[in-house]
Amino acid sequence: MTPIIGSLSDLDGRYDVLFCDLWGCLHDGKRVYPAAVEALRRFRARGGVVILMTNAPRPAWSVERHLERLGCPLDVRDGVVSSGDAAVASVNAGEWGRRVFHIGADKDEAFFEAARVERVALEEAESVIVTGLVDDLTETPDDYAERLAAVRARGLRMLSANPDVHVDVGERRIWCAGGIALAYEALGGETASYGKPHPPIYAMGRAMVESRLGRPVEDARILCVGDGIHTDVAGGVAQGLDTLFVTGGLAAPQMGDDVEAPDPEKLEFYIASHGLRPTVAIGRLR
Fold it and tell me: Which residues does 184 contact at the CB level (< 8 Å), separation at least 6?
């Protein structure tokens, strides 16, 4: 069975680095979790390095601004890497052409401030970049069926700047770019992503740690923290890293009545049904 711990400090001495998720772990899109803030502060106070690793489709500087607006203190992290960073690197390397069709909201404009591409009509595009839904509060991927069919008819590749399918904003669950990518794949379309669980974002995280410490860190000393079984946990497992599954995020409805204390039997059923086993689990990061 996957052990359930009461706090991050239960793992003292085992890890030097955290690759820590944001949504569902440090905040819910509307408010920062005070207990998570204190847990990360304590880890850093003991000499640990905290890299906030997020599937947000925007560059790290934009993620930092969002954290500032939420009132997240600076001393919880040593750096931020985002799926947006990894996707922009691929775009700027010329892997997606220079004329792209964009699916997404105005709030993702920061992506295109960093990406050296021109946004054009679908008929002129070499590829498609999806950063999210235009209105994620009201829309679902079904609203894009006609548009995706047109993309598929042209045989274009799709870059999903955010692999997440869903995220919770407060008490509300909304669709992300990953949901659009799944719908396109169902039509036979080709997609790619560079955030969790895919290797590029982990390479960026490791590079940031090495820059910070002046040396690489052994994989056994890195812990991936997150609430996404198919992103945070799957990515960590694929990288050969230990994982701390935060059950009080996306999986909370399946974990019993107390979000702070997952039911062990329900946790085991959830893990078995998804075929991915985290190293340890916790209700909320604290």
Answer: 148, 151, 152, 158, 191
Kind plus residue range of the DSSP H or E element containing 45: helix 34-45
Q: What is the pLDDT of residues 91-115, one digit of tens each?
A: 999 999 999 999 999 999 999 999 9
DSSP strand pairing (172-175 vs 166-169): antiparallel
Please report, rounded to a whole number, the percentage of residues in the chain having pLDDT higher than 90: 98
Give strand pairing partners of 52.
20, 80
Tokens of 241: 């890293």
In sequence order, what DSSP letters do the residues of 158-200 get, joined into one string?
EEES---SEEEETTEEEE-HHHHHHHHHHTT--EE--STTSHH
Domain boundaries, the chain: 8-55+197-282, 86-192
Query: Structure pTM?
Result: 0.95
What is the homologous superfamily of the domain 8-55+197-282 according to CATH?
HAD superfamily/HAD-like (3.40.50.1000)
Overall fold of domain 86-192: Rossmann fold (3.40.50)
Per residue in 179-235, pLDDT (tens digit) is 999 999 999 999 999 999 999 999 999 999 999 999 999 999 999 999 999 999 999
pLDDT of residue 185: 98
The token pair that represents 26 in the structure block: 């440090």
Judged by DSSP in three states, 131 sits in: coil
- The amino acid present at 125, given as its one-letter code, is A
Give me the phi and psi of 81, to 5 degrees please.
-125, 140
